[in-house]
Write a structure and sequence with these properties.
Distance between the termini of chain A: 60 Å
Helix content of chain B: 55-70%
Order of helices and strands of chain A: HHH
Number of domains of chain A: 1
Largest sheet of chain A: none
CATH topology of chain A: Helix Hairpins
CATH class of chain A: Mainly Alpha
Structural class of chain B: mainly alpha
Distance between the termini of chain B: 25 Å
Number of domains of chain B: 2
Oligomer: heterotrimer
Chains: A mainly alpha, B mainly alpha, C mainly alpha
Strand content of chain A: under 5%
Shape of chain A: elongated
Number of helices of chain A: 3
Number of helices of chain B: 5
Number of strands of chain A: 0
Radius of gyration of chain B: 20 Å
Chain lengths: 92, 170, 119
């Protein structure tokens, strides 16, 4: 029973990820794409935890723990890089 | 001079304890090797970074040591508020009615940590996202705006949360 | 009996995750400007992921896993608003105005660059 619920949630998260990717693909501005990326990273985190509980492996949860702590640092770097590039484009 | 020195030592000790607690949370290991490694690492890193971790002008212990009871209560309050504001957002998505606007207000909180927690908390609650936090001045995008008067905005966006946080830190 | 109760509680948590997740994704496509999309997406997305964590915490088979999930929840509550704050700040610095996107982005960036050179 509980395995069935977890399976359903797995497919639901996959659908969420695909919708986020569509938004990233369509997004007219860079900000829209970043918003979609932000949600996509949360979905990934939820997927890792779900997978860990389904397979009863602690390793997935350790990966998720590191991901939740250092995930937004990479995100900060992306935002920073895009901001610089945007400013350069406007200047030219 | 004596006060300055004592404050320096207190900051160093608090940084070491915070680092060691974090280490222990991640390892969850009572072995001698793990504890020794964690302690040596915490001491060395605290010696380098205590000046950054707790700035010199944060001259009060209650600026960064939380009140445990109010902190525990605040966790439940923020989870309740998270669900409540999500529900409001759900209704707004269905009806499509909203009045987004960028507003400004000031906070009464004095500690940097409390201000950071306040900015994070109002990103959760009623349809607001912090755009900028500059000393005590916050720029916020508010989704259900009904006034632009700074005091009224401050009261309806953060009044309740600020009172809660004011009990935890100063 | 105990297992059944846990499963029912987990089912409630997962159902609310589905409702909020679908709401957030619909909001991501329904609103016209980046700020509103961000509001809907990040708030409902955070709540949905938080509900999934609660459900997995209820279903967790061992204490070691439950403790790790609790840690993940704690750090998620800290890092999720930080992530949306980074995006919001990027949007604001890029000069997206409220309501009408991209109206005076070029002017604002030009102003900022002039200010930066004057310093």
């Amino acid at each position: 029973m509980s395995l069935f619920i977890l399976e359903v949630m797995k497919w639901f998260l996959l659908a969420c990820a695909i919708v986020c990717l569509v938004r990233m693909f369509l997004g007219p501005t860079t900000a829209d794409r970043l918003v979609a990326l932000n949600i996509l990273s949360s979905v990934t985190l939820a997927f890792l935890v779900l997978r860990g509980v389904v397979q009863q492996r602690v390793l997935y949860l350790d990966v998720a723990l590191v991901y939740v702590i250092f995930g937004f640092l990479g995100f900060l770097a992306i935002a920073r890089f895009l901001k610089d590039r945007l400013n350069d484009e406007e200047a030219e | 001079m004596q006060v300055e020195r004592a404050w320096r030592i207190i900051r160093f000790v608090i940084t070491t304890i915070a680092l060691f607690i974090t280490w222990f949370l991640f390892t969850a290991d009572f072995g001698l090797f793990s504890l020794t490694t964690g302690m040596v690492g915490s001491l060395l890193i605290a010696a380098i970074t205590y000046e950054v971790f707790i700035a010199r002008h944060q001259a009060n212990l209650r600026f960064f040591i939380p009140h445990p009871f109010f902190l525990a209560r605040y966790l439940f309050v923020i989870i309740f508020l998270l669900y409540q504001s999500s529900f409001r957002m759900l209704i707004a998505v269905i009806t499509g009615r909203a009045s987004p606007r960028i507003v400004h207000f000031r906070t009464r909180l004095r500690s940097d940590l409390a201000r950071m927690i306040l900015a994070n908390s109002i990103t959760f609650t009623p349809g607001t996202i912090t755009l900028d936090l500059n000393d005590d001045h916050l720029t916020v995008h508010w989704f259900f705006c009904n006034t632009i008067h700074a005091k009224a905005v401050g009261e309806s966006v953060k009044g309740r949360i600020e009172r809660h946080i004011g009990k935890i830190w100063l | 009996m105990m297992l059944l109760m846990r499963e029912i509680l987990a089912m409630i948590a997962f159902a609310s995750a589905m409702v909020f997740g679908i709401g957030g994704l619909v909001g991501l496509f329904r609103f016209p400007d980046p700020y509103s999309r961000m509001q809907a997406g990040s708030l409902c997305g955070t709540t949905a992921v938080f509900s999934i964590f609660l459900g997995t915490l209820i279903l967790a088979p061992s204490a070691a896993m439950a403790a790790r999930i609790l840690l993940i929840i704690f750090f998620f509550l800290l890092s999720a608003p930080t992530g949306s704050y980074i995006v919001a700040r990027f949007t604001w610095n890029a000069g997206t105005s409220q309501g009408k996107p991209l109206r005076n982005r070029i002017e604002r960036i030009a102003d900022k660059r002039q200010g930066g050179e004057a310093e």
